[in-house]
Design goal:
five-stranded antiparallel sheet, 239 residues, four-stranded antiparallel sheet, 24% helix, alpha+beta
Length: 239
């Protein structure tokens, strides 16, 4: 088909984004501005611990609408309890290199979402009053003066048939020019690949002529069908 045969290449005027085009792309030029990247909310507890195995932690942690009560658990146990639940965050640990260096880290599962966390007891957090260690944000790009938002830095809905991979924000009043054009070398490669595959099948069918089943009419019809298809005129469109 025309879409399967088509191949497109992309050219960018800057390296803040990468772009790949599928056979569904259309030739054209697009102006793109990267306003912000998608970023997951992150919160790091102030309390530090000497190890992750001592089971002496107790307290309460409200994450969004859900509350986790824990008693006499270790730091590693608490991480596991959070990750086994459905809180919209993933717990992990960091070690800042100090004597009491092990600290709890809570990272939102989805970029651009805000989840309030209030923790009391062995670990204290209050993002309602203190804010987040790092705020979450959605990716925001402007394509030909149209604002587009995404929870991922890989966007395939902004330009037809093109996937954009956002690397960095553009400078003030700076835009990136994306040019989509036909990739002649890739089209030639597709045709050559088809020719090779076709010839291999025809050669295989011919090689079976001396076998008992090689003269079977249904088997020989495969060859005739392939030959008829490749000899037929493909329908054309105005696209």
């Amino acid at each position: 088909s025309t879409s399967e045969l088509s191949a497109y290449s992309t050219t960018l005027s800057s390296d803040e984004i990468a772009a790949t085009a599928s056979s569904l792309a259309k030739t054209g030029t697009y102006n793109i501005e990267v306003v912000s990247l998608a970023c997951q909310q992150k919160d790091v507890a102030d309390e530090g611990f000497t190890d992750t195995t001592t089971a002496d932690l107790s307290g309460s942690m409200t994450i969004g609408e859900e509350t986790l009560e824990y008693e006499d658990v270790s730091l590693s146990d608490l991480v596991e309890l959070i990750n086994d639940g459905e809180y919209g965050v993933t717990a992990s640990l960091l070690n800042d290199g100090t004597e009491n260096g092990y600290r709890m880290v809570l990272t939102a599962d989805q970029s651009g979402t805000e989840i309030d966390i209030v923790a009391t007891g062995s670990i204290t957090l209050n993002t309602v009053t203190d804010g987040h260690t790092r705020d979450g944000s959605k990716a925001h790009i402007v394509v030909d003066n149209v604002d587009i938002y995404s929870t991922s830095n890989i966007i395939d809905t902004a330009v037809n048939g093109v996937t954009l991979d956002l690397m960095d924000v553009t400078g003030t009043d700076e835009t990136i020019t994306l040019t989509v054009g036909l990739d002649s070398d890739a089209i030639v490669e597709k045709v050559e690949s088809f020719v090779t595959a076709y010839n291999d099948v025809i050669a295989y069918i011919s090689d079976q002529s001396k076998t008992d089943w090689g003269s079977d009419s249904e088997f020989r019809n495969v060859k005739r069908s392939l030959q008829n298809q490749t000899a037929a005129t493909a329908p054309t469109t105005s696209a």
